[in-house]
Amino acid sequence: MQTYLEFERPYADLQTRISELRVSAEAGDADIDSELEKLEAKAERILADTYAKLTPWQKTQVARHPSRPHFKHFTSRMVEDFTPLAGDRAFADDQAILGGLARFRGRKVMVIGHEKGDDTASRIKHNFGMGKPEGYRKAIRLVELADRFNLPVVTLVDTSGAFPGIQAEERGQAEAIARSTEACLNLGVPMVAAIVGEGGSGGAIALAAGNRVLMMANAVYSVISPEGCASILWRTNEKAADAAEAMKMTADDLLALRVIDAVVPEPLGGAHRSPDVAIDLLADAVEAALESLDGLSRDELRADRRRKFLAMGAL
Question: What would the pLDDT profile of 157-179 be if each residue is shown by its tens digit?
Answer without folding.
Answer: 999 999 999 999 999 999 999 99
